[in-house]
Amino acid sequence: MNSDKPFVLDFDLLSGLCKSERVKPKYRYASDMRDQFLDKNAADMAIKAGNPLLYEFYGLDLPERDNVLQFGTTKIYPGKIGSEYYMTKGHFHTLLDTSEIYYCLRGHGIMMMETPEGDVDYREMLPGDAIYVPGRWAHRSINTGATPFVMFFVYRADAGHDYGTIEEKGFRRLVVEKNGKPVVTQNPKWL
Ligand SMILES: [Fe+2]
């Protein structure tokens, strides 16, 4: 895509969708996320029961250069695998020092973050909340509400996505439902 000329895209605030052909959707189903959840039996059951769509995201086909800003929306559906809420894979940026902004358009969720050194932070996100995720902080979006959780994001286009580090053990904290409410717990793989 040509990033040298101005252009306007229309993102629907409720659905998070952009109808432009310039925006490429990507989909993550339960089968793509099986290893991210602690309860593998629950994940297998969900896959067998219809393999639900957990989230989708829309980004532009922009050149991955340090002078370009990539942007789009992510939409996480409501639901749980076992007691864990639907969430994104989560990643560090390959260029570890690069930051990212998320702006909540709809729904209710948590941005879970951690550094390679083990610092942990997590923030509740509601419509109108913008979060600055500094460089070095891995990030994962978690839908703790009953409706789709939609956020707009912007990051340096050459930041890259390192999913592998998170795939090995997951984040240090999990967000699970207990007595109908979201609770942050220790990931036993990090004990
Ligand atoms: Fe990111």
Compile the SSE list and pairings.
Blueprint: E1 23-29, H1 40-48, E2 53-60, E3 69-76, E4 80-81, E5 84-85, E6 92-93, E7 100-106, E8 109-114, E9 120-125, E10 130-133, E11 138-143, E12 149-156, E13 161-162, H2 164-169, E14 173-178, E15 181-186
Antiparallel strand pairs: 1-2, 2-3, 3-12, 4-5, 6-13, 7-10, 7-12, 8-9, 8-11, 14-15
The structure holds fe (ii) ion.
Residues 91, 93, 100, 139, 155 line the site of fe (ii) ion.
Percentage of β-strand residues: 35-45%
- Binned, the helix content reads under 10%
- What is the fold named in CATH at topology level? Jelly Rolls
Report Rg: 16 Å
Labels describing this entry:
6-stranded antiparallel sheet, 2 helices, 15 strands, Jelly Rolls, binds fe (ii) ion, 191 residues, mainly beta, single chain
Overview of the structural elements:
It is built from two helices and 15 strands. With 191 residues, it is mostly beta strands. It has a single domain, classed as Jelly Rolls (Sandwich). Strands 1-2-3-12-7-10 form a six-stranded antiparallel sheet, with no helix packed on it. A three-stranded antiparallel sheet has the order 9-8-11, with no helix packed on it. Strand 2 and strand 3 form a beta hairpin. It is globular. Fe (ii) ion binds next to loops. The site of fe (ii) ion has 5 residues, from loops.
